[in-house]
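Dear colleague,

Thank you for sharing your sequence with our group. We've completed the structure prediction you requested, and as agreed, I am returning the results in plain text so they can be pasted directly into your records. Please verify that the sequence below matches your submission; if there's any discrepancy, let me know and we will rerun it promptly.
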Amino acid sequence: MAVLPVCQDCCQIVTVNKNGKIETHSPEPYGERACNASGLLTGRVRDIVVSSALRAHAVRRSRPTTSWGPVRKSGSLPRMPEADLDAMPAPKWLPQLKAGALASVTLPAAGWLGVWLPGYAKPTQAYRVEALTQRNVTSTWSARMECWTVNNQHFLSVANALMRRNEQILVGREYNPREKCTSSCKAARGPLCTCSCHAKHHGGGRWMAGWCVAEEFGTVVDGSRWHWMITGKA
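Please find the predicted structure tokens below.
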């Protein structure tokens, strides 16, 4: 296992110079926009523990950021390749959106929380997902869900962190249409719910405070019902 510095603003692996400042980097893979934490002291960095394989991949991915040079007056960075050539495709069961792929958080009825991030390679997604939890956790690859997973208890921290970094994200939840919403659901705490209310009444819906839902729809995946929201911060 190895320890890598991660920017708390954008969750990218970063380089810290000898003066203790964060090197210029972008919040997107090979992006042109500089992260707000570029050039600041390491108070905006935290360490995560990753496997040797992920560390080797992260070092390869981070090399271009060390040669970008100073930020231009406009705040942009020199142009780099437009996409990560080994970016992981979206899981086949995720709904295809007219507006294009969105960072996705999925809550199955049984199993762990699934997270998929567009534009990133499989190993890169692993340490970014772990960083989004804001905890020292290890993600697990799910062949069934075709993405990295973490414990469901990190649902809100991951979803809210993604909404701080993206205008909109896709949130999916497996539910049972025959499970009626009862008083126990309405009085519950937290966001975990599989009843027919799609968690809207779960705990009075307080877990969604600050969310702005733009669109809702449903799908059927291998016979299971899923409710989807395209949402962002209000």
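Summary note from our side: The longest strand covers residues 211-221.

Kind regards,
the structure core
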